[in-house]
Amino acid sequence: MLVPLAIFSNSVAAGAIKTALPSISPKAEDFSRALIATTRSTTRKITFEALDNSMDVIDRILSASSKRVGDPDVLSVGPAKDSALISVNRKRVSRAGNLLQLGSAKGKPLKFRDGMGETFVYAGPIGISGYQKVDAFGSFDPKGFYLVNPEKGTAIFMRTKPELASISPDQKLLALMNNGLSSPFSILAATLSENGYSIDLQCQSHLDGGVRQRIIPFFKGWHGNAGEGFDIVLLVQRLDDDPTPRFEAMPVRFSLKDSEWHVFVPDPQRFMRMAKLTCWH
After folding, report:
1. Is the dihedral of CA 80, 85, 90, 91 positive or negative?
2. Which of 45, 62, 103, 187 is the right S-S partner for 177, CB 3.0 to 4.6 Å?
């Protein structure tokens, strides 16, 4: 199993959960746990703003193709072979038997040791960001992947299920959300830089007055300039006393402006009433 023990950390991504894994040294920040954690690294509640539809933004978000595993901007686990990639990056990456090691400029090397049903595969650098990717495989299927900061020798971990992770075209922002099948529906965004990473946006759905609802999310991709933000559509199904389930597709635009996240929806009051989503930054 990947997460046998968790402790809280006050490191770069303050409030994220740092996971102690017996096969990995040093520890990695578990973004999959931070996604649904009640202890957040963000504290200021975001007020939803009305989405300007002067350029048919709503229709463009709704009609955009949903991003899936296998699309270029969605991070996923690749083939279980790494010898060629290690050869290209042998100044920083090495393998000796079951030990995969990634060096760093300022921190300790990050070590991944195969065993106990787990195999770690070096998947190469992520575009121009400099971050290195390591895929984790279980006995029967992929478990998730790590993004390693080559300057600090630190890492973040994300599962392949039930989460979807996407990195912005300029590799400076990371978006992560779950599939809505497990409660609560959650989404976070993090900044990636050579100095480290930080969780800057977190959103979670919640129950209100006993009313339940199911949220099925669709990631629509990044918009505007390379690091301006991303769009999602939430298909909200209310599961209250109405015998006929009610569905509503709600477009949501997340925009980063002057280092602050903004959340835009067509009708903020209706969105809060239907989606029961709260966001912090």
Report:
1. negative
2. 187
